[in-house]
Design goal:
148 residues, alpha+beta, Jelly Rolls, four-stranded antiparallel sheet
């Protein structure tokens, strides 16, 4: 059987966004939970890359949470085509409560090469503005002192 590898486009597709925390990487996904110390909207996502090993191959990714299912799909595609599938959800994680979920790929006539699952907390507009102002002040301390 042929050995397939990720190409540059696959690696770009699988890059984590800035501020995201990697939860799982491999080929099978994960079953886990997240928890926050205060109410927080969290972005949970899965991305997967596969190669078609028989005509009509498909790749689906799923996020299961509390009886709900979100899914994304790529394919069907011809033999040896690359498949890229992703799905994300935004959920409110209540302070001190665990939010359990599963995130996994489902390949049909395809071989999964890599799957990543990540999460990122959404920041309020105020938090984003404060962080931007602080970063600007750090970048030019003389200018920040003159404007205050």
């Amino acid at each position: 059987m042929a050995r397939f590898k990720l190409n540059e486009a696959d690696e770009d597709f699988l890059k984590l966004p800035q501020g995201a925390a990697l939860i799982a990487a491999g080929s099978s996904g994960t079953e886990t939970w997240i928890e926050r110390d205060r109410d927080m909207v969290v972005h949970i996502a899965i991305k997967s890359v596969a190669v078609v090993i028989a005509d009509g191959g498909t790749l689906r990714v799923c996020i299961e949470m509390g009886g709900d299912l979100a899914k994304g799909e790529d394919g069907p595609a011809p033999l040896e085509a690359q498949l890229h599938a992703s799905q994300s959800v935004q959920v409110l994680v209540k302070a001190g409560e665990r939010l359990a979920f599963k995130a996994y790929p489902v390949a049909s006539n395809a071989q999964v090469l890599k799957t990543i699952v990540w999460a990122a907390d959404f920041k309020s507009d105020h938090q984003v503005e404060t962080a931007a102002r602080m970063a600007q002040e750090r970048a030019s301390p003389a200018g920040a002192a003159a404007t205050h």
